[in-house]
Amino acid sequence: MSSREPLWYCHECHAEMRPLMVPDPVCASCHGSFVEKMENPTDDPRQFGQEDDPFTILGGNNPQMDNFLMGLQTLMERGMNPNNRTPGAGGGSGMTFEVRGSNGRTIRMGGANTLGRGPDRPPRPPVPNMTDFLGSGPSSPGPRHGNDGPTIGGVLMAQYLTALLGGRDPGLGNAESGRMGDYVFNQEALDQVITQIMENSNSHRPVPATEDVTENLPRDVLTEGSPMLEKDCAVCKDQFKLGTDDPDEQVVITLPCKHPFHEPCILPWLKSSGTCPVCRYALVPQPDQHGSPPHPGSSPSGPSGSGRPPYSPGPSERSGHGSGAGLFQSLFGGLTGHGQNHATHNHGTGSPDPRRSPIQGPQGPQRRGSEPSRRNNDHLPGSWSEDLD
Amino acid sequence: MTSISVRRLQKELTEIQNEGCPVGINLLKADDFQTWFFTLEVMGDSLYQGEAYTLMFRFEPQYPISSPAVQFVVSHDKQAPIHPHVYSNGHICASILGSEWSPVLSVVAVCVTLQSMLASCKKKERPPDNDRYVRTAPDNPKKTVFHYDDDTV
Prior knowledge:
With 389 residues, chain A is of the alpha+beta class. Chain A has helices at 55-58, 63-80, 130-134, 154-165, 187-200, 211-215, 263-272, 325-334, 339-345, 383-388, and strands at residues 8-10, 15-17, 20-21, 25-26, 35-37, 94-100, 106-112, 179-180, 183-184, 219-221, 251-254, 260-262. Chain A is built from 10 helices and 12 strands.
């Protein structure tokens, strides 16, 4: 460390940081209070817990530690499972456990149980105790003292204890502060869980086309006089032309919906989404989205990519602008803020399977939205209302 | 070898410079092919009449295969519009910026769409989860996976 000020270490983030003093030091990132000033190089907190199994430090073959853990197990079995509890002398269920040290001293801990006390309380379903947790662990509950007890693996014990104490448990994922498995203890942790769930959800993500699908797409090499030369690629918005620097740009892939693209333009797209960029024809089944008709998964809008929306999308739309006006239809509908159009779209759910729409389009591949010069009313395909409304 | 994004963006920029933007949309700054700024106004009758917003586009080298990261600029003198799909940090929950992006769309098409999103708004309010989202939101809205589950607004 080059800095003169001593760094602090957050035991919750497991990271060095400069704490916020408010007025007690808390971690700047997690706001946890389990922070330690790193002053003594012989007691570097970063060393702690870096072992795969932190309990090897404490446990391992240390019989003293075994005793302690045995005692803790007994405590947990009694404390958490009322059925196992033996009534104590004082009316409540007393719990004690003791640790015998090798130096002959015995430490006894315990006292009256305050959890779930009361004879009138119906027995709760047993909380999984340590024996359950360990699965193959010893079956006979009850106090066990001494070295003749079964040995519990340090790793399992560590997991159990960390789970018990709400700490970080590698087995439960990257638990942040305030989290333990599925449990959260504060708003921030809840936010994190929700964010994580949202991010992990891929139900709305487009499904890429498989290589099988892309390899079998028809490819044409442009030649002199090809009708393709009058069209353009909706991805790069360039016209197909001969004599390009990149010979790959003279290879045209035509999707089943009849929309042509430069091979180097369409292949990367299909690797991220197996749909036609113009009409959202699905080459591979796409996830059902939010149930609104104009989304790519359930309603590719057919080959009529040059179709204009059946309504005026806004006073600002300039004619001839916005290549791929077909997309306007789906984007206006797909945009979740566009309520006034939804009324006109909602009855589309009853339309026939939209994945078949490519064959019903009256327009050929010539009618594409990416050709601004052609996009006039004479190209208005009738299939919009069929496909999308 | 120029990347696919530069070629495409150059084409879009030329078109904007030659033909201008649709009414209410103006190019503010496009000094490179990474970040562009536009001003956005909603024309005609709307809840946002007379208000001007700034949109920031950030492009990856894979544009237009990958969608641009689009958000309203929020700074000391700029605010994001109050809209059920616009968070107070400027992030926008719009499916076309996420799972429904298509390379056929363009920068101006996105502007027009967002303009239309504002124009059709019936009630100025923040998304219900605004506070929660803004607290934990990443810098780049593309890192957020929005759920486009609200079609009613």
